[in-house]
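FIELD: query
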Amino acid sequence: MKMTFIRAGLVAALLLLTGCDTGSKAQPTVLEGKTMGTFWRVSLVDIDAQQAKNLQQKIQAQLDGDDRLMSTWKGDSALMQFNHSTSTAPWPVSAAMADIITTALRVGEKTDGAMDITVGPLVNLWGFGPDKQPVKTPDQAQIDAAKARTGLAHLTVINRAGEQFLQKDLPDLFVDLSTVGEGYAADHLARLMEQQGIGRYLVSVGGALASRGLNAQGQPWRVAIQKPTDRENVAQAIVDINGHGISTSGSYRNYYELDGKRISHIIDPRSGRPIQHELVSVTVIAPTALEADTWDTGLMVLGTDKAKEVVQREGLAVMMIIKEGEGFRSWMSPQFSAFLLKEKN
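FIELD: result
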C-alpha cells in the first residue's frame, strides 16, 4: 500500500524561478522547521544572525502552540478535548479557535456544505486521520454511519459577553481543522513578524503562505504554483502576492492505493467518499491565508463546473487545474489573473 503525506502544492519562488538577478549579493535569511505534520518556512530581509536565532525559537514555539490548539493527532489538544467531550452545553474556547471555526462555517455555507470541518468521522474512516488505514474499501453502511455523525448544522459558535464558546448538538460530533490549520498558522506567523517589527517577509506553513513588503531584490514576493504531479517540481504559474494570503489544495500529493484505486485525502462530505472528478488542484488568493485555505478545499470538493459557479458568484481569485487526457488544462478567474507575474518585454 502506497501512502504519501506531502502537501507542498505551493513553493516560495526562488531567484532562478522568478527570473531575478542571481548575481545580486542581496539574499534573504531563510528559517525552516517542522509543524503539524508538514514544514514551515520564513524568508526575511534585513535581520542579523542573532535576530534570526531568536526568531527561529519564537516561531517554533508559536507553531507548537498552534498545534496544541488544533491537532487531531494530539489527544490533549484544545480541539480534541472538545471532540472527546459528549457534552452538548456551550464549551469555552479561545478567540483564535472561534475565529477559525466561524470562517470555516461561513465558507461551508457558501459552498453548500462541500467545505465541512465536521467531516472527521469520514476522514478517519478512509484512513487520513488518527485512526488506522482501512484494509478494504469501507462499505455503504460504514459510510452512512460516519455521515450520521457529521454536519455543519450541528456546530455553533457563541459569543457571550466577550467570551467564545462552541456548542454541538450531537454528542459525538468530531471537528477536524486540518483543512484550515495551515492557513491560520501562516497568518499567525505573519502577525508575529509584525510584532517583531519585521516588515519584509514571506511565511509558509505547508501549502499556505502570506507575505508583506519586498524581497531581497526589492521586488514583490513571488510564489510558484506547482504543476499537479507527484513526479516533478515544475511551476505551472508564478504570482505576485504582496500583502495577501495564498493556498493550494490538490488531490495529487496525499493519497494511497486501496483495492487497485487511488484514494484521495479530500473527502466529499455529501457522498462520504473521496473525490473522483477531474479537478486536481485549486489555488486561492485572499486577504488572509486562512481565508484562502478555507476556500480551496471546498472548491476542490465541488469539482470544476460547480466550483466555477461559486468563484464567479463570490468574486474570488482562483486558479484551477483540471486533468484532461494525458495532460492538464488550467482555468483562472479575472481576479486571479491580476496577480500573475507580468514578464518584462
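FIELD: remark
The longest strand covers residues 279-286.
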